[in-house]
Design goal:
113 residues; mainly beta; 1 helix; 5% helix; 33% strand
Length: 113
């Protein structure tokens, strides 16, 4: 079985599978095109964020390190936006938009992991 969250080749980051235009389902997570599923309660509504995906960025850590990521999911629920990211070194995570510096693509700065 293929590891859905394997490392990403930075030269091919734009080919990273992602979900766009609709909220993610459990099947999307199982396929590796989404990181999370938002299941609203109490009448809350989930909607996709209008954002070109995949997107390249750096997730800002608590110690101010910036870790390269590919954003594969962006959804809003009850006024809160969450991003699903994949790390270039493998694995995935969830963060908020203020925790990510979005870039046009990889740059010459040293990648911090």
């Amino acid at each position: 079985m293929k590891d859905l969250w394997e490392p990403i080749d930075v030269a091919a980051w734009q080919a990273t599978p992602c979900i766009s235009g609709r909220p993610a389902t459990r099947a999307d997570v199982a396929e590796g095109i989404a990181v999370f599923v938002l299941e609203p309660s109490g009448g809350a509504r989930v909607s996709p964020v209008d954002m070109k995906l995949p997107a390249y960025g750096r997730q800002i850590q608590a110690d101010e390190r910036r870790i390269p990521v590919v954003i594969i999911q962006a959804e809003n629920a009850s006024g809160q936006t969450l991003l699903g990211v994949r790390y270039l070194t493998g694995g995935n995570g969830v963060c908020m938009p203020h925790e990510v510096e979005i870039l046009d693509g990889p740059d010459d700065r040293k990648e911090q992991r």
